[in-house]
Amino acid sequence: MTNHLLRSNAPISDAAWRLLDEEAQERLTPALAARKLVDFSGPHGWDHSATNLGRIEPLASAPCDGVSGLQRRVLPLVEVRADFEVARAELRDADRGAADADLEGLDKAAHQIAVAENIAVFHGWQGAIAGIDEASPHKQVKLGDITDKYPGLVAGAVERLLCSGITGPYGLALGREQYRRVVETAEHGGYPLLDHLGKILEGPIVWAPGVKGAVVVSLRGGDFLFESGQDLSIGYDSHDAEVVRLYLEESFSFRVATPEAGVALKP
Question: How many other C-beta atoms can be found within 10 angstroms of the C-beta atom of residue 31?
Answer without folding.
Answer: 20
